Each structure stands twice: as C-alpha cells, then as structure tokens.
TrEMBL record:
GO biological process: maturation of LSU-rRNA from tricistronic rRNA transcript (SSU-rRNA, 5.8S rRNA, LSU-rRNA); negative regulation of signal transduction
Skewed-composition ranges (Basic residues): 352-363
Full protein name: Uncharacterized protein
Predominant localisation class: nucleus
Mapped WD repeat ranges: 29-63, 71-111, 112-153, 234-270
Gene name tied to this protein: pak1ip1
Entries under InterPro entries matching the protein: PAK1-Kinase_Regulator (IPR051959), WD40/YVTN_repeat-like_dom_sf (IPR015943), WD40_repeat_CS (IPR019775), WD40_repeat_dom_sf (IPR036322), WD40_rpt (IPR001680)
GO MF, one annotated term: protein kinase inhibitor activity
Classification lineage: Eukaryota, Metazoa, Chordata, Craniata, Vertebrata
Length: 363
C-alpha cells in the first residue's frame, strides 16, 4: 500500500507502507507536477489523481509508477475529486462546474454548471446513480447521474464546505463551519446536528453510523450519527489536523491523519471496543504543509468493483425521474437544458502519444 500526501509546496509525497508486527512507512517517491499548491487527491485501483490551484488534474499510473497525463477542463482551482469504481471520476472546481470523466479514455463525458459560486465538495452515492455537491452559493444540490441533470436544490443558510455519503447511502452529512448536519436520504431532512468548538476540516465515515471528525485542533473525535454523542476522542497531533482518511485491513480499521505540523500518522482502531485508545502504527514527517491525504491499495485483480446496480429509487429523491433501463450508473447524456458544455481551455494530452516520465524517486 502507498500513503499519499499533497502540500502547499506543490509536491505529491508517496510512502510505501510495510505492515507487520511493527509497521513501517518508507519514502517511495516525490513528484512536483503542479505549479501551485495541491488542493485535492483521489485514488482507485490503478490511478492517483491530484487537483491544484493551477487549474489542472494530474494523473499517475501507480502500477507502472509513471506520470500518465493531465486533464485541463476547469478554469479555476480544482477543489474536489472522487472516483466511482475504476470507470469514472468526478471533479469540481472554483469555476462552478462539475465534470464527469471516463477513466478508460480519460475524456470528459459531461461538464455541468453545478453552482453559481465555487464547488466546494462533492460525494457520489454508493449506487453511482446520485451525487451531492455544495458550493459558495449557499445550496446543497442532488444530481441524477443516470440522466446527467439536477434532481433537487436545497437552500442553506450558510455556505457548506463538505458533504459526504455514508457507506450504505442511507444518510449523508453536510458540514458548515463547525457544524455537521446529518440528513436521511428517505426524507431529505435533518435528523440530527453535531456541534464542534472549532471549524471542521475533514470528516470520514468509519461505519454506517460512526463518523470521524477533525478540525482546527489536535484531536480526532468519533461520533454516533444516530445519537449525535461523542463516542471517543484522542489527541493525534501537536498541531491542527488537516485531513482524515481510513481503510479496512484484515477486518480492522486503519485511520490516517495528516496535520499542519507535517506529520502523517496511521492508527489501528478497534471499532468493537471504541472506548479503547487507538494504537499508533507508524508516522512520517514530510516537513511540508499538508493539504490532502489518500491511500492507494494494491488490490487483487479479482476484487469486485462497486456495482452500478444501486437500490436508490426516484421516490427517495425529489424530482428524480426513473432511470432509463438501458443506462446504469454514471453514463447517461445530459439534455441541453440541464447541462452546459464548456470549451476546453487547453487540449487534453493524447495519453498514448504523451511521453511518460518516471516519478522522481527518493534516494
């Protein structure tokens, strides 16, 4: 596995993690692909993509350890990136557009004017049929990805900066400053609210009901989304925690945290014994101002990908038409009224003709 971190210094760090009785994270590569700070990071089974304030999305082939190309559709900072399986990528930017990419040919299938202001965050439903986005126009928008159009718009009192689906897709959270609003998909209404003392910087669902929250202090806090009670909290860093992520390994939850102090840490967390203090597996000091965090897991080729056969129906989301029988997941073409094609600022490089450069390896 590879732990990845992006920073203000325009560099992508890669650390090879060697699990064992004593975990070890060793420097694997650094890559200076952007001309401005990194703002977003996402991975699937093969690729890593980074978004930046330089308005580009850089692609890296992690199996071959080469630079794969660049996507140049956005006219502004790329603020959020999320893969759906190995076939699609969604990106959002300060230009207000949400782009849907085919990751086989790396072409933009749709470019939708999602918000009047910036797109600050997006999240894809586990079924692949819906997505949520929030922006600086004080709206929460639901997208029908089957038809490539807006399904529902909810006005918010303030600008939200994070949105996230739960693993089963039955609830989602919207973060506004230091507040987490918990919504139920079935009713599209708030079922509870979690208030923090300081601004929230990142959230991550560890289970369908346990939410990890970090913000402008040194602590990681675990909350129950049903009762809104804090289940446990622990000090993770000496400075504010910038980003949190997690993955499952051999039935155990591995938590990753990145801080403004430059450290990336990995923790072992027993979700069955949530009151037990997590154990520190390993840590690395990047000596950089970290902005984003991800993990690339080398999966078995036979590992099944997320199914496009979702259980979400049109009755669960306002104004969503029943999906067309011949179209599943993220593949429908939008109507002219519902989406806008924006001119590509610069041509996307031909991936076959582009000379692939080896990622710079640390000595």
């Amino acid at each position: 596995m590879e732990v990845l971190g992006g920073c203000y210094e325009q560099v992508l760090f890669g650390f090879a993690v060697r699990p064992g009785e004593k975990w070890e994270a060793v420097p694997d590569f650094t890559h200076h692909a952007h001309s401005a700070s990194l703002s977003a990071l996402a991975t699937n089974d093969r690729y890593v993509v980074t978004g930046s304030r330089d308005e580009t999305i850089q692609i890296y082939d992690m199996k071959k350890k080469v630079e794969h190309g660049a996507l140049m559709q956005h006219n502004g900072t790329v603020t959020c990136l999320e893969f759906y399986g190995n076939a699609h990528l969604l990106s959002g930017g300060e230009d207000g557009f949400m782009c849907i990419w085919n990751t086989k040919r790396w072409e933009c299938l749709k470019s939708i004017k999602a918000h009047k202001g910036h797109v600050t965050s997006l999240s894809i439903h586990p079924s692949g049929k819906l997505a949520l986005s929030v922006g600086t126009d004080k709206t929460l928008r639901t997208w029908n990805l089957v038809e490539g159009r807006s399904a529902f718009i909810k006005n918010l009192k303030q600008n939200a900066h994070l949105v996230k689906w739960s693993p089963n897709g039955e609830i989602y959270v919207v973060v506004i400053a230091n507040k987490v609003d918990i919504y139920k998909l079935a009713t599209a209404s708030i079922s509870g609210t979690i208030l923090m003392e300081k601004r929230i910087s990142s959230v991550k669902f560890l289970t369908d009901r346990i939410l990890a929250i970090v913000g402008d202090d040194e602590f990681v806090r675990l909350y129950d989304c049903e009762s809104q009670n804090c289940l446990y909290e622990f000090k993770a860093h000496e400075n504010r925690v910038k980003e949190i992520n997690s993955f499952e390994r051999e039935g155990a939850c591995v938590l990753m945290t990145a801080s403004s102090d430059g450290y990336i840490k990995m923790w072992s967390l027993d979700l069955d014994q949530i009151k037990n203090a997590p154990s520190l597996l390993c840590e690395v000091n990047t000596k950089a101002r970290l902005t984003c965090l991800a993990v690339w897991l080398k999966r078995d080729p036979e590992t099944k990908q997320p199914s496009n056969e979702g259980t979400t129906t049109s009755s669960q989301v306002h104004e969503v038409k029943p999906p067309l029988s011949k179209r599943k997941g993220i593949c429908g073409q939008p109507s002219e009224e519902e989406s806008q094609e924006v001119p590509v600022k610069r041509k996307v490089p031909d991936m076959k003709k582009k000379k692939k450069k080896k990622l710079q390896r640390l000595k």
